[in-house]
Amino acid sequence: MENPGLPQAAAPLHGMFTAVPPRYDLVNRIITLGQDRRWRRLAALSCLEDRPGRVLDLGCGTGDLTINLARLAEKNVEILGLDYSLPMLERAREKAARAGVKERVDFMHGDASQLPFPDGHFDAVGISFAFRNLTYKNPLRAPHFAEVLRVLRPGGRYVIVESSQPENRIIRSLFHCYLRAFVKPMGILISGNRAAYRYLAESTVRFYSPREVREMLSAAGFRSIAYRPLLFGAAGIHVAVK
Ligand SMILES: C[S@@+](CC[C@H](N)C(=O)[O-])C[C@H]1O[C@@H](n2cnc3c(N)ncnc32)[C@H](O)[C@@H]1O
Asked: Ligand 1 atom closest to Cα of 129?
């Protein structure tokens, strides 16, 4: 479903995410040392933990979390991926068809600051590697949190898989070196998109610690916030309840 009336040219980072898709998945595999697939699967399992009837993959990109949800969920669960980048959605639809889950999922064009759903519509909202984009230096951070809260039913889960900050200072320094010395040049080389991978590396180096994310979620109105570090804390999964 497309939603061409959106004021997207003005939306933060929109231009970057319409340019990224061609090699997006390949770069993800390489820079996470192949771990991103396992992390999204864990996030999908967490989204499905309370046997939801309806799940949203927010900022679904090329659809990897959505496809995981479709593979793991019971047949009656409604699964929807939403993104404001049409090229990302196009790839997501192709991939869902190739994965044999085309009939199980819907993809929708929309903006996280104005979600096109009624209050309490979803039992779970999952977000994989788009939370940083919606929060880090994003002027629409507060509306992004407010919209997730609004579309979740009371007791619904917000599952966030995202890069993080390792607690150990030495591991954190190594991780930051890796981002600047390997991820940035490798991303630029493979994708040809200098701005996108400079942003990725710098925003990841400066991104919030698990404690700061917890405080943000709590200030936004979520409760029962839990965190699980992945790969020595280079990434992690936050679960928060409405
Ligand atoms: C880094 S990608 C992650 C994509 C995918 N979830 C994954 O796991 O690979 C971030 C995605 O969030 C989308 N996005 C960023 N800001 C958005 C917004 N305000 N509304 C909807 N989608 C947004 C981008 O278009 C992009 O597809």
From this structure: 3
Q: How far is CA 176 from the centre of its chain?
A: 21
Q: For 95, how many CA atoms within 13 A lie in the half-sphere containing its CB?
A: 23
Q: What are phi and psi of 36, to 5 degrees?
A: -60, -35
| 98/70 Cα distance (integer angstroms) | 13
pTM confidence score: 0.94
Q: Answer whether residue 58 shows pLDDT above 70.
A: yes
Do the Cβ atoms of 63 and 81 come closer than 8 Å? yes
pLDDT in tens, 126-166: 999 999 999 999 999 999 999 999 999 999 999 999 999 99
Contact 162, 65 (CB under 8 A): no
List pocket residues of ligand 1, CB cut-off 6 Å: 11, 13, 17, 40, 59-61, 64-65, 83-85, 88, 111-113, 128-130, 133-134
Q: Which two tokens stand for residue 176?
A: 């930051």
d(CA 35, CA 198): 21
Q: How far is CA 229 from CA 74, 84, 124, 221, in A?
A: 27, 28, 21, 22
C-alpha dihedral, 131 to 134 to 138 to 143, nearest 10°: -130
Q: For residue 216, what are its two tokens?
A: 């943000």
CB within 8 Å of 55: residues ≥ 6 apart: 47, 48, 69, 73, 77, 78, 79, 80, 122, 123, 124, 125, 126
pLDDT tens track for 5-32: 454 555 778 877 777 656 777 888 887 8
Q: Which atom in ligand 1 lies closest to the alpha carbon of residue 61? A: 27
